[in-house]
Amino acid sequence: MRVTGGETDEDLARRTIRGTVDALDFMQAHGVRFQPSLSGTLSLARTNAFFLGGGKSLVNAYYLAAEALGIDILYESEVEVLHVEDDRIALVEMTSRGFPEFVRARAVVVASGGFQANREWLKEGWGDIAENFLIRGTPYARGKVLRNLLDQGIASIGDPTQCHAVAIDGRAPKFDGGIVTRLDCVPFSIVVNANGDRFYDEGEDVWPKRYAIWGRLVAQQPGQIAYAIIDAKARKLFMPSVFPAIEAPSVRELAGKLGLDGDKLEQVVASYNAAVQPGTFDNQRLDGCRTSGLTPDKSNWARPIVEPPFIGYPLRPGITFTYLGVKVDADARVYREGGTAMRNLFGAGEIMAGSVLGKGYLAGFGMAIGTVFGRAAGNGAAREAALLR
Questions:
Q1: Burial profile 82-105: b = 16 or more Cβ within 10 angstroms, e = fewer
Q2: N or C end of the chain, less CB within 10 A?
Q3: Which cofactor is recorded for it (predicted)?
Q4: Which stretches does DSSP call E strand in the chain?
Q5: pTM metric for this prediction
Q6: d(CA 388, CA 360)
Q7: Both ends of the chain: CA-CA distance in Å?
Q8: DSSP secondary structure code for residue 129 in this structure
Q9: Neighbour order of strands in the sheet with 341-347
Q10: Domain architecture of the chain: domains with CATH
């Protein structure tokens, strides 16, 4: 409720959380392997389970488990149109290995994600500034199935401008930079925009509750770029960057390397340093080390930036997935506009995540939604298919 500002379906949010209780057993039974939780810089050891090998390893394990059960998987295939007739999907129109295919299915699960790689769709909500967004994943997540369903009267939920948006290294590629381009230095830094001004409390809360707001914050700045500034004593407090840090022996020289005004950055750093209050620094908790008299003040982890080399990172909005999606219930059943439930259409993952995430993000919650509602959708589709035998 805190990270979304109350913009969530509380019943579905609780359904997601409860569903994670036995998710690990289910995942392990289908070939997913886990590793010890990360600790230290990410503050996730208490709350998050980590699977070994990342997302591709997870998906590959599921594919192998499905094939072992005798399930046919059509690779090199793309759904073009889902034909909605009243409360049913009557026909699935697709292309498979270059040839048209038509499938009449007893039940359909849509798990095709959002539209984060569709820049024209992003511009509908964001305007031309969307040209400066970096897409953390595949360039193929264009929302074709989502758009097709919404155009046929399937109920939508969520804001087209809300998304999982992380402040990533501004030197990352336009697509497919992945998780390694994320920068976790923000809580231990000051962040300035292209004019050299701070614009948000860098120490508002622990990073797993705030890292996914920073992409949106940077998107609202001039040129959709910002810069994190730290000194030598902070450099080991976060995961190392995939691109080399930009370093200089003085704040003025660092400003020059970042393309910022040297006088302004020196003034901002000096004002920040003077505003830091006495306290006991602790990067593992909300430590209350704060500033006083700044706009905005920094609430935690505030220490003077005085120890060379001085270090900077350019930040750009990195879009992971969008929140506009289809409306579902606790059984993952998709609804039409007007409140009619679709009899044989179910949704899972990012295509319905807006039901839970109106805005904001909590670390690991996308995976939780995908897993819990993937299982719910599969169960619902199986029941529907059995009824129609």
A1: bebeeebbebbebeeeeeeeeeeb
A2: C
A3: FAD
A4: 34-35, 50-51, 77-85, 88-96, 99-103, 108-110, 134-135, 156-157, 163-169, 190-193, 226-230, 246-248, 310-322, 325-326, 333-335, 341-347
A5: 0.88
A6: 40
A7: 42
A8: G
A9: 108-110, 341-347, 333-335
A10: 10-30+74-162+324-387 (3.50.50.60), 165-318 (3.90.700.10)
Tokens of 51: 């699977």
Q: Where are any strands of DSSP class E within 267-332?
A: 310-322, 325-326
Q: Give which of 318, 319, 350, 345 is closest to 332, Cα–Cα.
A: 345
pLDDT tens digits along 40-61: 555 666 678 888 988 889 999 9
The type of residue at 239 is: M
Looking at this protein, which amino acid is placed at residue 216?
R
Instruction: Give CA 234 to chain center in angstroms.
Output: 25
- Asked if pLDDT for residue 389 goes beyond 80, the answer is no
